[in-house]
Design goal:
Pfam families: LRR_8, TIR
InterPro entries: Cys-rich_flank_reg_C, Leu-rich_rpt, Leu-rich_rpt_typical-subtyp, LRR_dom_sf, TIR_dom, Toll-like_receptor, Toll_tir_struct_dom_sf
Helix content: 25-40%
Number of helices: 21
GO molecular function: transmembrane signaling receptor activity; triacyl lipopeptide binding
Number of strands: 33
Strand content: 15-25%
Subcellular location: Membrane
Shape: elongated
Organism: Champsocephalus esox
Largest sheet: 22 strands, parallel
Structural class: alpha/beta
Length: about 800
Amino acid sequence: MELLTNLYLLLSFAMCRGQRSSCDRCDPRLACDCSHAGYTLVPTVTDRALTLDLSFNDIAVVTGGDLTGHEKLRILILHRNRLSEIHPSAFDSLWSLEQLDLSDNQLTAINRRWFSKLGALQELNLLHNPYSCLGSRPVLQRLRRLKRLMFGGPALEELRRRDLSGVSQLEELTVQANNLRRYESGALADVWPLGRVTLSLHGPFLTNIALASDVIGDVSYPETPIILKDLHLNQSVQPFREMVRRRVRRITFCNLSVSDKGIVDFLEAVDGEPITSLFMDGVTLIGEGRWEKARLTDHKNIDEFFLRNVVVLNVFQFSSLLQLGFLLQYPRKVSIINSQVFVMPCATTHLLLNLQYLDLSDNLLTDLTLTETLCNGDGTLKDLRVLNVSGNALKSLSTVSRLVTNLSKLTHLDVSRNGFISMPGGCSWPSTLRYLNISWAKLTTISPCLPETLEVLDLSNNDLKAFFLILPSLRELHLSGNKILSLPPGWMFPNLQTLTIQSNTLNMFTRSDLQAYRRLQDLWAGQNKFVCSCDFVYFLQSAIKGGEDVHLSDGEDAYVCDSPLYLRGEPAGRVRLSVVVCRRVLFVSVSCVVALIIGILVCVLLWRLHAFWYLRMMWAWLKAKRSSRRRQRREELLSYDAFVSYSERDASWVENFLVPELEEPRENDGDSLNPRPLTLCLHKRDFLPGHWIVDNIMSAMERSRRTVFILSENFVQSEWCRYELDFSHFQLFDGETGSNAAILILLEPLSKDDIPKRFCKLRKLMSSTTYLEWPREEERSGEFWRKVRNALRDEEEEEEEG
């Protein structure tokens, strides 16, 4: 049969291998959540996964290769699938597996080969599968590290002594044995120590008294809490006598249906036994509360009663608890939770002689019925230290304070989840009160009603907008879920160590805000609408790295930017802000200084290069060129025959030779007409004093028919001569001025190659214009001057002909 099963699995695997889907829903912690995805086969996931959740799918088969390569996997959850077949070697590669959940499937048999390689397994859940026994051979023998074991289901009928062979100790054992029919005595007895036992015993199991006694007896130890589920305690309580005989101290009943007779029988069964705690969760009381038949029993060892989710079917016929003094006078802790209690008569309260802890949360108490329950605040419960009336219908905080003011030992008071709207201006509290919880109310302001003796105060989830109250003894303050805009002033709480202020409307807080809290150690301030300014981001990142005395206990991911808009949703601890954003004033100042320095340097450079002169020269030339009446205006402006451009070092030649020769009248030298004296413009003589020299140069050239350049080594070395040459170059290429506007005179031999490249205009002129050379022989000077005059006259004649 096993061979056929393996063959079937291999064939199924071969047919479906190419159809396996992949699952990529893995978080940064390598926990892959592949649940509720409709998978019919085990999907492929990364082999680095540590947790794989495949619950609530339709997987029917796990083949031998589905989980190959997952040596790092620690948790595998296959809960609530249609799993009916698992290959014997399916889990062989899971050497690191610590938790395996196969519950709520269709496994009809447990194969010991599944667990043969799972030496690291600590938790195994086999609940709610239709197997009738754990196997013909021990299946858990190699699970030496197992700490939590859950097995059983509706089809489990047999437990043998060797079934748990190899399991030596457990922290938790859960057995669902509602239909168990055969139990070999001692099957569960070898597991020791045993931390906690949960037995589901509903059905015909309890009708077999011997069988039930054996099971309960095998797991009953004084220090082992026992949880019995799904019981109908209206039958014989004989199975529990074995548990009592083993001196079990803590018993819990879950989903218990009990009659008056069942309670009386149970109380008689545990008469005088050392049971210290009795818990009942999910109790249905069928009777009328007639338990006085057990009034002679002794239960002085019972220290705690815990009742939750109690339903009384015949509530209007249920008798008073006044006859239960034999049961209520001993416990120090009583909890009646979510049981629709609307009042506990004062007479019943008087029966709780040793009560130190009272929990009446999630009931129907009002201000009036609480007054009755606490006997109008007369201090009946003189030893009460903890009172929990949260989740009721209380409206008046002043009434509560009045009722507890005489509880001289009260240290803890929980009135959360009630309907308090306002807080009175003054209240009276017991001087011993240290813990007060008024969370989940509707308070909008606080007042000096709060006692100064408080060490822990919880005002979470109200409508507070601010908190200003001096509480010198306070160590913990919880203000989450309000509308507070800023941290409360730290000087009001000199001993505060923990502050929670999550989910408010905080924009930011600073180092100085926290320094005001002299002893603050833990701050929970995430989930607020933070403005991620530079100061806040830098401070927060410093605090996250441990650079501050206060620890941000809720982690950096809780601090998320709400503004500015481009940072919304980003964790403030990972935001990187630029210097432009964070040091804007400094950045603008430095930028302005740098721009000013660069501007000054550029201006100095342009000044040194006389760029402004070039710009003005170009502007003047462009304006003159675009004018439609330019030639007429030029004729009117002409005052000189020539502008003489020369170096100051050549001034003696100009003044001693050029000026006398051209400006002074001359005798006829053979021409038909006596030459007219020429008018020259010299900068030393004709420039207007007080005007910018560049303006003088431009004006002189504009008012002269020609420009005479006296070329020499001195000319080449003069910057001003270069400017005059450049402006003349504009006129030279101006169509209206003529192509002979410049006359070059060489005082000394000077070739084009001798001229520096920066005198590019002069090099071009010497290439395109005929120049005159000053003769070294005196007899040739007459011919030289004649050529000069002819050159100047040619310009004049051309203009007259035009």
